[in-house]
Amino acid sequence: MGSVLICLAALVTVDGLVSSSAAWLATPPPPLPVLPIPSASQLRWQRREIIMFFHFGMNTFTDSEWGTGSEDPSLFRPASLNASQWMDAAQAAGASLAILVAKHHDGFCLWPSAYTAHSVRASPFRGDVVREFTDAARARGIDAGIYLSPWDRHDARYGKETAYNEYYEAQLRELLTGYGSVSEIWFDGAKGKNATNMTYHFSEWFQTVRQLQPSTNIFSDAGPDVRWVGDEKGFAGTTCWSTVNRSMITIGEAGIETYLNQGDPRGTDWVPPECDVSIRPGWFWHRNETAKPLLQLLEIYYNSVGRNCVLLLNAPPNATGLVADADVARLREFRAALATIFNTDLAAGSVARASSDRGPRFEARNVLDGRDDTFWAPTADDGRRNGYWIELRRCSPERAFNVVRIQEHVALGQRVERHQVFVDGVPVANGTTVGHKRLHRLAQPVAGRTVRVWVAAAGRGPPLLSAVGLHLDPFVAAGTV
Ligand SMILES: *[C@@H]1O[C@H](CO)[C@@H](O)[C@H](O)[C@H]1NC(C)=O
Ligand SMILES: *[C@@H]1O[C@H](CO)[C@@H](O)[C@H](O)[C@H]1NC(C)=O
Ligand SMILES: *[C@@H]1O[C@H](CO)[C@@H](O)[C@H](O)[C@H]1NC(C)=O
Ligand SMILES: *[C@@H]1O[C@H](CO)[C@@H](O)[C@H](O)[C@H]1NC(C)=O
Ligand SMILES: *[C@@H]1O[C@H](CO)[C@@H](O)[C@H](O)[C@H]1NC(C)=O
Ligand SMILES: *[C@@H]1O[C@H](CO)[C@@H](O)[C@H](O)[C@H]1NC(C)=O
Ligand SMILES: *[C@@H]1O[C@H](CO)[C@@H](O)[C@H](O)[C@H]1NC(C)=O
Q1: pLDDT tens digit sequence for 121-142
Q2: What is the DSSP letter of 448?
Q3: Which residue owns the Cα nearest ligand 5 atom 10?
């Protein structure tokens, strides 16, 4: 208690000094952005951190992952579908956006599309799952997203370039004009080896999305707004740039996974990665499968959100039309574990100093205020050769931590190329990129008075850090990940 009081007194003193000088010093402007920078929609997306995915459709009733397209619509008969209960799952995970598979590769449409007979309209269910989903999401204050599979194994127009692209465009229009705001839309290049040849008119599709809903984030291997991370494990590269050259990526083409996983420090397009992974082994519900254990979900979180990505977590509703209670419970457990780890910041109350700062509004202490829009900025001349540093002098040096959180103010571009963390002079962690959020798990909990973060950003202007946090993860410490 005594040391906390001393620390608070120190904080007040530092505050007093800064504000008395700020009274007569003009505030310097923020540094120039380093291009490319995110759009407003991309920034909103990045701050979501966790998004839910719901794979539900014909496959749910046929125990498959890829349907053939010849399924009888009468098989689709959820006994008590309740999309509000799906939102219980989304809220359990703390997600602010939920994406629905409106049509998978089997071509069966979960809404009564005017352009095909192969939909809920021909099933005993008769309702409109897209409507129930978007209404349920909106009622909970959750944003809605849509996945519409390009590969369609049912429709006879598939393989006829103009006819199929017209069909796909018409369905995009139905989904983007009939169901309110759609915050993210998913396109992929998944296709069986023997699939009929078909050229998708991605450029036309993307521009149609822009015309109908300009703030929707468009996901595909190549963006334009959000890119695939290159695997379905939910793991980004330890180096992970939000930037790529879109011209180097062909949607659906094999061999680009490493580029997608790591990004490109010289990339000219801001297209941050999304890590899609299912809570169960399959994307669709299967009676024989169960949710991943908590430690595995935490591992996924550290390797996705903790590596500058957004986690897109799938929870498949079952054949009754409900997410299994056990899966909802696991999501709740996951969220509670994240709160246990991250709701206490063991850096709080520290006194911060740095190799330099740009002046009032850009001081080192901004990394401790819990805000994304304030940041520490060093001077332009500092650190070009030897890197920059920021140091926290802790109030309670005896309180051990095993997670270090570093965040960049990416609104002005992603800059950090290398970084290293020292506790009382001893190196405990290091890495390359930081981005929106970088989490380091230490081999074991460490205590100490000073935590210093050293960063290099040679080619990309001075680094701008919005947060440095210290946390104790009791789950990883107790288990073996
Ligand atoms: C649907 O789920 C919601 C949320 O769990 C619940 O409040 C509601 O009672 C359910 N509706 C029906 C008809 O079971
Ligand atoms: C692909 O086509 C070949 C030749 O027709 C066939 O032998 C093979 O089983 C097919 N593979 C799949 C996955 O359908
Ligand atoms: C698809 O088209 C390519 C190039 O035109 C050709 O090489 C390939 O054999 C075709 N595949 C099928 C399944 O028809
Ligand atoms: C991406 O484009 C930039 C600018 O044209 C170029 O300097 C860079 O080398 C490209 N990246 C790759 C991996 O080719
Ligand atoms: C569960 O059943 C499905 C369909 O029969 C099968 O594809 C999948 O591999 C099974 N999963 C496990 C974990 O055994
Ligand atoms: C689906 O999940 C609900 C909630 O756990 C459960 O009551 C129902 O029996 C499940 N349906 C099937 C087919 O397993
Ligand atoms: C960087 O971290 C790795 C793994 O934690 C460690 O083996 C290595 O010694 C560290 N390097 C430096 C320079 O601290």
Answers
A1: 999 999 999 999 999 999 999 9
A2: -
A3: 288
User: What's the confidence (pLDDT) of residue 14?
Assistant: 45
DSSP string, 167-234: HHHHHHHHHHHSSS---EEE------TTPPP----HHHHHHHHHHH-TTPEEEETT-SSEEE-S-SSS
Look at residue 23 in the predicted model and tell me its pLDDT.
58
Question: Does the CB atom of residue 66 touch ligand 5 within 6 A?
Answer: no
Check residue 4 and give its pLDDT.
44
State both tokens at 404.
């270090």
Q: Which ligand sits nearest to residue 264's alpha carbon? A: 4
The token pair that represents 373 in the structure block:
């829009």
- Please tell me the CATH code under which domain 2-30+345-478 is placed: 2.60.120.260
Pocket test for ligand 5, best of 65, 288, 290, 292 (most atoms within 8 A of CB): 288
| DSSP element (H, E) containing 418 | strand 418-423
pLDDT of residue 17: 46
- The ranges assigned to domains in the chain are 2-30+345-478, 40-342
For ligand 2, atom 6: residue with the closest CA: 194
What lines the ligand 7 site, CB under 6 Å?
420, 427, 430
Would the CA dihedral through 155, 161, 162, 167 be positive or negative? positive
Out of 3.40.50.970, 3.20.20.80, 3.40.50.300, 3.90.1170.50, the CATH code matching 40-342 is 3.20.20.80
**pLDDT tens-digit profile of 422-436?**
999 999 999 999 999
At 26 the pLDDT is 80
What DSSP state is assigned to residue 324?
-
Q: Distance between CA atoms of 7 and 306, rounded to whole angstroms? A: 29
Using CB atoms within 10 A of its CB, is residue 161 exposed (0-12), middle (13-18) or buried (19+)?
middle
Tell me, what's the pLDDT at 254? Answer: 86
Ligand with smallest separation from the Cα of 284: 5
Which pLDDT value is given to residue 477? 62
Torsion (CA) 167, 172, 177, 179 in degrees, nearest 10: 120
Domains 2-30+345-478 and 40-342 share a fold: no
Which stretches of the chain score pLDDT less than 70?
A: 1-25, 477-481
Residue bearing the CA closest to ligand 1, atom 13:
82
Q: What is the pLDDT of residue 478?
A: 66
β partners of residue 310: 274
pLDDT at 460: 86
**What is the spatial distance between Cα 195 and Cα 201, in angstroms, rounded to a whole number?**
17
Q: Look at residues 475, 428, 467 and name the one whose alpha carbon lies nearest to residue 447.
A: 428
**For residue 56, what pLDDT is reported?**
98
